[in-house]
Write the structure tokens for this entry.
Amino acid sequence: MEAAVALERDAQLMLRVRAGDDTSFAMLLERHRGPVVHFLYRMVPNQAVSEELAQEVFLRVYRSRATYEPTAKFTTWLFRIATHVALNSIRDRKKEKGHESLDEELLDGMERQVADRQQTVEQEMVHEVKRREVRQAIEALPAKQRAAVLMHKYEGLDYSQIAAVLRCSESAIKSLLFRAYESLRGRLAHMA
Amino acid sequence: MICLSRNEQGAELLASYLARTLDTAARAELDGHFETCTDCRGLVSVWERLDEFKAPEVTPGFDARLYARIAAGEARVSAWRRWLWPPVAPVAAAVALAALVLFIRPPDAAKQSSLTSNNAEIELVAQAVDDLDLLIPLADTRDR
Amino acid sequence: MRFLFTIAVVVALAVPSVAQDNILRPKALRQQRLKQQKAQKQKMLPLPAPAVERFLQMSPEDRERALARLTPERRQQVEERLSRLEQLPADQRQGLQDVYPAFMNLRPVRRQAVRQEIQLLRQLRPGERRERLNNNAADFSPEEMEILRKVAGLPE
């Protein structure tokens, strides 16, 4: 019940933004900034790029306020924009000559940021290795499978929402996710 | 129970299992299968392993950068309209100015007392205060 | 005798001047105390919620205008909580610096689930909290469990 109320509230806030209430936009940003940035980080594992893309997402949300209609859940609409922005970025980055898909040094720094201060050095090293392997396994997935896994695992969108974001049927999404998890199983089989 | 990979309903079953929408009996049957089938167990354990992929926190200044981009965009739109439609220039300029006033939030918030007495803004503060208070480590005594 | 008389004169002269110092310098003492309090405040970690920090740095008049928008009951609740937050010792402020960003990174619906769980944990004794978290671990992600354990003061 609480979840349903929270989702409706987002659509209501966006309608207030449409009516000219910019503070409601601030509230939406407060609620969804973290999840959107994290989704984009896991799509393009580079913190600076992911935040740049997240800014693009919220800019698009703001700029399309005049024509916003709550035909779907707000998070579905939001992640449709985020996925579109991410897929464009992935496609553009692939075209760049000599592009390294992972900036290892930068990522090392990012991963250290994520470190739990209370862990021992050894524990942290083990976690860092696991983090890197999972990250690489996810990045090896085709972009659409990657997006589906991230929305499913980390952002908690249900199958109907993911289907709406990727514009396919629910059964197609379940098959897509199954293939993705099979790939990930293969790549992560050695992990304890 | 045959392996999910060889089961026509495999994708559907895995989806329902992960979404926790299977009934108790079906879930128990799958759990039993996972105990003996490495392949299927591996599929489910991927779900737990993905927890290792944590994302860093959003950098401070994210909002300020976003609002500056929004304000710059509003000003550009207004300038363009002023060039094309002179009669609406004063209105466009007022809109740009209003957008700049509303959205530019310098990082040094101490100099800024532009938090207007607006219901939604104080709601935001109130919610944040509630959350901070809630997250204070619990003492040994019961709820305050 | 002369010696005692000298001591008495010295003491007699000294006492009024000390008293005079205290009388003459209350403003200086007050200023020094305020300076120390300000320095103390500045040394303290800010609260991790930018909206709340901005609010705390507003002028009293602006804060009053903003708070007046709340119902009296809600206002009292917010003011009590703000007061409690402002008086938090350094280690608890640091704790909030760790936990609040992680909490805000959760999706809104999960934040609500974590809020509800913390409210429930508040009603329990420490031993009961541990048992509840251990029993309900499957309902929360590792990030959510970390937040709950930190708030409940329980090790992993």
Notes: The two ends of chain B are 52 Å apart (CA to CA). Confidence is low (pLDDT under 50) at residues 104-117 of chain B. DSSP finds six helices and no strands in chain B.
